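tokens incoming
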């Protein structure tokens, strides 16, 4: 007697993969399941120093918070979601829970991705997904190409060409984020 098989949904497959690969970041981008290994030390220090810079800039006083590894529900396909490395969000972002610990895109002011082994996702599908979601500012710390890219103000779901910043330069955080500060490209790339 044949036993009917249950075909997994993409969301169910993502849940299984998350349990099978502890410490990995599992996302669904444009209908494609991805898993990224845990960050290296420089990646982690870049995010720590980024948080400190936002603290010094008065993020809490501006009515904002920064979070690491919090899900962003994407409008691209029904099961799509991303887990940015670092995000600046409205202080009441928890009221915008969609599902699976992912929050509505309208509470995100800025997302930052520090490239790892999956650098092509940060430079391709995530640019498209975050633009379509209307995320006002997307910063890619591109360790593969040794530069920082600043995407901002998507129009009709697409970001214009990014501003590129090289070593010994600073990236100005756009006014739309809600705090004023400049970020060192060297610190973003190296965590130093």
């Amino acid at each position: 007697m044949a036993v009917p098989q249950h075909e997994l949904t993409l969301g169910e497959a993502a849940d299984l993969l998350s349990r099978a690969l502890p410490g990995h970041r599992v996302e669904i981008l444009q209908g494609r399941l991805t898993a990224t290994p845990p960050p290296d030390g420089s990646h982690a220090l870049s995010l720590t120093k980024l948080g400190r810079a936002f603290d010094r800039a008065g993020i809490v006083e501006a009515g904002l918070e920064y979070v690491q590894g919090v899900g962003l529900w994407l409008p691209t396909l029904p099961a799509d979601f991303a887990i940015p490395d670092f995000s600046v969000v409205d202080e009441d972002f928890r009221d915008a829970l969609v599902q699976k610990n992912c929050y509505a895109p309208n509470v995100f002011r800025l997302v930052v991705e520090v490239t790892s082994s999956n650098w092509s996702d940060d430079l391709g599908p995530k640019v498209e997904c975050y633009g379509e979601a209307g995320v006002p500012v997307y910063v890619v710390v591109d360790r593969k190409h040794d530069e920082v890219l600043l995407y901002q103000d998507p129009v009709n779901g697409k970001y214009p060409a990014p501003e590129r910043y090289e070593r010994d330069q600073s990236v100005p955080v756009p006014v739309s984020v809600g705090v004023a500060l400049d970020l060192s490209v060297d610190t973003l790339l190296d965590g130093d």
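note: The two ends are 63 Å apart (CA to CA).
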